[in-house]
Amino acid sequence: MNEGLFFLFLSSGLFLGWSLGANDAANLFGTAVGSRMIKFKTAALIASVFVILGAVFTGSGASETLSHLGKINAIAGAFMVALAAALAIYWMSSSGLPVSTSQAIVGAIIGWNFYSGNPTDSDTLIEIVSSWVLCPLLSAGVAVFIFWGIKLWMKHLKVHLFRMDSYVRTGLILIGAFGAYALGANNIANVMGVFVDSSPLHALSVGEITFSKTQILFFIGGISIAVGIFTYSQNTIKTIGNNLMHMTPIVALIVVFAQSLVLFLFAFKPLKLFLDAHGLPSLPLVPVSSSHAVIGAILGIGVAKGGRNINWKIVGKIAFGWFLTPVIAAAVCFVSLFFLENVFNLSVYEG
Fold this sequence. Notes:
globular
């Protein structure tokens, strides 16, 4: 396949990356922007740089698990899987709801499996779906632990208000950058994973550093995420930053740190290998949702504070969006594959 035709099919993956940036920037800096500690343009720049770095240098962490769910063996099929997921994410994001790109791509892959007659690997599906439950619970637990730790620390250490404000702002920037890196490492598989096998790109050497063709593909996907952050993420930032629960700057810092740490734990392959080698429990390397993580952290702190400040109506809408996203993606993918194959005469799978 020539590169021009490949990039035509890759356009759906770029659209998906744009949708991810539009949605998930809120999970990195929504709390910081919502609490007025960081300006939106500053947050967008930091998130864009570090999401690209994470995608290029640590992007393979969760891609193998996702490929086990369904092996998409035709470029036209990969195009439609990514497009179906992107359409589902775009529709939910345009409503101002933070949803999961991981759920969208999983739903789309399952739609392709149904259409092509390929079985869905049940063990992989259970592992991924269980992470959708474990991720917000773990994030909530981490957030509560940090919340009580900081509360205890502040009782014994008197810090001037202006100095504390400076500490919190610096912390939000550093932890937001860490979260952006983890997002790129974990979720680039959702954006570009279905195109890896069919990519005609070549390795590129820059001085003493050689970038593989997969890293170049992930770099392109990372740029599309960055464009989404700059152009369309403000609606979702409002939902995360202000509407779900009123947050002080310190609570915002805790939320960002908890969700960033959890996202990183699901993406960092060396840590899993180390724990497995020593017989210790480890988390699966799966693409998890930063939306799940950040909302779990917010709700964890909200419950720890008595639950009085939580907007439960918004929580209900978000939960409904989480349920609806993979269903929409699967349905759109299944129907669109039929038209792609029967109207445009493109091969969407290889028998």
